Amino acid sequence: MFKTRPCGCKGLRSCKICEEKYGAFKIYDGIPKENSYVLCYKCKMLWPGCNYDIIKSHPDHQGESIAGRRGLIKNIDQLPWDQSQSGRLKQNYGPKCNFKKRKVTPEAFKGYPNFTKFIQDRFKTLNLLKSFETVEQCSLEYTPERGSSIDPHIDDCWIWGERIPTLSLLTDSFLTLTKFTGLETKYNLSDTQTYPRIVTESGLVKDFSDICKEFKEIVPSELKHSEERVSYPLVIRIPMPRRSLLVLYGTARYDYEHSILREDIKDRRVCITYREITPTFLSCGPKACVGKEILEKSKLFWDSKEICS
Predict the structure, then answer these.
(1) What is the model's pLDDT at position 224?
(2) Which candidate, 153, 154, 184, 158, places its Cα nearest to that of 102?
(3) Residue span of the structural domain in which 298 resides
(4) Is residue 32 scored above 70 in pLDDT?
(5) Dmax over Cα atoms in the chain, in whole Å?
(6) Which domain CATH number covers 256?
(7) Contact criterion met (CB below 8 Å) for 21 and 9
(8) Residues 6 or more apart from 309 whose CB is under 8 A from it?
(9) Does 61 reside within a domain?
(10) By mean pLDDT, which of 20-34, 112-126, 159-173, 264-278 is the weakest?
(11) What is the pTM of this model?
């Protein structure tokens, strides 16, 4: 069936008419859908899929873009890494904090590298993070060669807020939670008695108006930890697959120390951890003036090419 047909097709070409009437067979039968990407002209990124629904879903794309998967690590590595403790390297962007003296210095805070903006934009598509306002962004590198790890700890509770999102890249790992049994003076945990929680026990984020209302009703001496926490497991191991986002809040945030064990670093791992400020620094809190300056600077993104050149 290579001759010219009445429908106009010839050679290997075919249409539905000659396939049905003359028995021609279709050589090309579509694209492989399992590894296809669509260019979204609105955000100029390639997203997994094969039809126009990808464009319609902007900005709430599902999956991970080619730019996000390949370009993110490349851009991170083009910026200088600083030495950190326990075999880690870090890139830290945020106000300088002295947790013991309870002092914060936002003057030198210039915002974040522009190639990471799409990550913070994606937070707005998640119910748990819609109201999240990043005030610190910290990239960490772990490698087995350096025996990288991070000791059990609770992120400071004087300035860092309840939700702590972490994006894991390159390789799978584990976050290990260990029940905290120390004094509440450590990690400034006692400060949690002076401001309301952001997330309810059922995982719903409170409205800002409700947070402000609770602030006025707080009586620190009446706030005590629930006795039910005693029954929680002593150790919990949370898988962190590569390209996954883990958000600590509630019990996992305040009642457990979290760590990365050396034996769980099988290959190079890079993660980006984000922090918000406590309600104390929001507009309804006693440190609103300081919080306002930090939040204003947290909206800034600078051109990473100027640093790399």
Answers:
(1) 46
(2) 158
(3) 68-308
(4) no
(5) 92
(6) 2.60.120.590
(7) no
(8) none
(9) no
(10) 20-34
(11) 0.77
Residue 164 lies in a domain: yes
What does the pLDDT look like over 5-17, one tens digit per residue? Answer: 788 787 777 788 8
Do 24 and 78 sit in the same domain of this protein? no
Residue 130, pLDDT > 60, answer: yes
Judgement on whether residues 24 and 130 belong to the same structural domain of the protein? no
Same domain, 15 and 125: no
Q: What is the pLDDT of residue 219?
A: 67
Buried b (16+ CB within 10 A) or exposed e, 251-261: ebbbbbbbbbe
Q: For 169, phi and psi rounded to 5 degrees?
A: -130, 155
pLDDT in tens, 215-242: 888 766 544 444 444 467 889 999 999 8
Q: Are 194 and 259 members of one domain?
A: yes
Distances from the Cα of 164 to the Cα of 153, 197, 279, angstroms: 13, 13, 14
If one counts the domains in the chain, the total is 2
Structure tokens given for 286: 């006693």
Sign of CA dihedral 183, 153, 181, 191: positive
Question: Do residues 73 and 211 share a domain?
Answer: yes
Question: Do 15 and 136 belong to one domain?
Answer: no
Residue 8 in domain: yes
CA-based torsion, 100, 186, 275, 143: positive or negative: positive
Q: Is 165 exposed, middle or buried (0-12, 13-18, 19+ CB in 10 A)?
A: buried
Q: How far apart are CA 207 and CA 308, in angstroms?
A: 41
Q: Is residue 14 part of a domain?
A: yes
Q: Which residue has the higher pLDDT, 37 or 259?
A: 259
107 and 198 in a single domain? The answer is yes
pLDDT tens, residue by residue, 92-102: 999 999 999 99
Averaged confidence pLDDT in the chain: 87
Structural tokens at position 132: 């999240």
